[in-house]
Amino acid sequence: DAGVIQSPRHEVTEMGQEVTLRCKPISGHNSLFWYRQTMMRGLELLIYFNNNVPIDDSGMPEDRFSAKMPNASFSTLKIQPSEPRDSAVYFCASSFIRTGGGNVLTFGAGSRLTVL
Amino acid sequence: QKEVEQDPGPLSVPEGAIVSLNCTYSNSAFQYFMWYRQYSRKGPELLMYTYSSGNKEDGRFTAQVDKSSKYISLFIRDSQPSDSATYLCAMSPPGFQKLVFGTGTRLLVSP
User: Fold this and answer.
1) What pLDDT, in 10s, does the model give residues B74-108?
2) I want to staple A59 with a disulfide (CB 3.0 to 4.6 A). Which of A11, A46, B28, B107 is the partner?
3) CA-CA-CA-CA torsion sign (A112, B1, B6, B12)
4) Do A42 and B104 touch (CB under 8 A)?
């Protein structure tokens, strides 16, 4: 398995532009998570999906952020319009959730976003 | 107070040293405990996974959970320069999908 695949690996854009980050989870995993990592705040959970359905988006910072999972093998995180404070590394992670068990995440390599 | 506290470091040690990395937590419902290792410009990767209290060993790595003290540790024996990375603890109650992560401890092992 190729693991969790994210694209682009690096994105530099100007304030106000739309940014779309993409993620392909591990085949067979039933949950997908989007995280943001910064030096100041560490890893923050933005949103997660179970069986393609958004379960908890309480970590999404504001309406400029949106996420979709149209099928089991693809998810997007969109920022529109982007702002300099959105600069961070965005990670996608997937897992297979069993009822009552622990959640072991497999992370992608991340998408490093710089908003000028 | 944060739910999970972790010293950010950096922790600098010479090659061959025994390293101790630690996290404290406040939620007594946590039962699943994990350690992730993150190399620079890479995603976190699972290193150790334990349930409830006790020790778990895997090669040079030992994870220890003390639920009475709400304290978890990761020990690295015979540390190598390749162990230089950021180590993040993570934990959750049973059945919870949202992991609570520590902020990570940066470890530097010098040759």
Assistant:
1) 999 999 999 999 999 999 988 778 899 999 999 99
2) A46
3) positive
4) yes
What tens digit of pLDDT does each residue of A30-65 get? 999 999 999 888 899 999 999 999 999 999 988 999
* Chain A nearest CA to B57, separation (Å): 18
> DSSP per residue over A56-88, as a string?
E-TT--STTEEEEEEETTEEEEEESS--GGG-E
Count of H helices and E strands in chain A?
0, 11
Considering only the beta carbons, identify the residue of B43, B98, B104 that sits closest to A108.
Answer: B43
**Residue A2: what residue type?**
A
Largest Cα separation within chain A, whole Å, is 44
